[in-house]
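From the pipeline queue, job 12 of 40. The input is one protein chain; the requested action is below.

Action: predict structure.
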Amino acid sequence: MAGMMNKLKKLDVYPKINEDFYRRTVSGGIITLVSSVVMFLLFFSELRLYLHAVTETKLVVDTARGETLRINFDITFPALSCSILSVDAMDVSGEQHLDVKHDIIKKRLDVHGNVIESRQDGIGAPKIEKPLQKHGGRLEHNEKYCGSCYGAEVADDDCCNSCEDVREAYRKKGWGLSNPNLIDQCKREGFLQRIKDEEGEGCNIYGSLEVNKVAGNFHFAPGKSFQQSDVHVHDLLVFQKDSFNLSHKINRLAFGDYFPGAMNPLDSVEWTQEQPSGMSQYFIKVVPTVYTDVNGHTIQSNQFSVMEHFKGAEMGHLQSIPAVYFFYDLSPIKVTFTEQHVSFFHFLTNVCAIVGGVFTVSEMLDSSIYCGQKVFKKKMEIGKLG
């Protein structure tokens, strides 16, 4: 046992050099100082890499089915009033959301872009004093109000108690409302007067849409939309205008929740209409994205790329309605971002390599300089003897 202990005491991987065989020099001190600085910088770099998470990116096939897609938008139309602006959404499965009002907020803007009024779309309507009943008489105190739908009733007991109800009934029938002044509800609510009062104003519309996770489109256009002979049209006659200025600024457009590093290419994009009317089109490719942080929290979201196009209005074609269209399609490939820390053993290995490598190089440099000095000195002595 004692012999084994003595052998362990003599074991030395790095045996020390006798002091008679080396000498301290200025060049050696400089090399040691420089090596220490380099070692500190490399150590600090490795420490920063260890403390900060790195992101691993992978591409996988998206096999999810039956999910929904949340579209968040914030768009400003400086030359289109809120009273005539509507939002529609539809997809390839045949599902349609026409004149969407839920989760939509509109802000009236003056010519300078200042907010005049902020209201939730479709909420509230002026009270009508003694409105016209469906049977033709005026509302009395002991009666329940039931307004006429002016031929758009589906059942005998259907009632349209507001201008919006009449417009909605007409939309379901595929009709356009050409003269609101002939509708008692619209006349008493001042529908045309409200449009006239907001003439020259702009509108900031923002909110969200919940749609099926399939290819589709959503668009912003003047007038209430309806289907006529399987064609999507808007009742523009009610506004008595030949053209609409659809210049706009996309303050924000995102498909899903925000995640660190997310970039939405349409944010802060402005478009100015130069032709009298037409369709501004954005063709979007949506890429499903999953982001997982270092704590394991997962965010299901999307990224997208986009192409822009403008289609001028064609006279006599119902498809050429003035609108801002966003056509989106889903990529079959999903991107996953996973944050993770470098392991401690990887950090320790790199630090040991830095310390050992820097000191080895410094010793080699110091030895080569010392040997060079000795050779130079020896040559000088030989030269003097000669």
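Job complete. The two ends are 63 Å apart (CA to CA).
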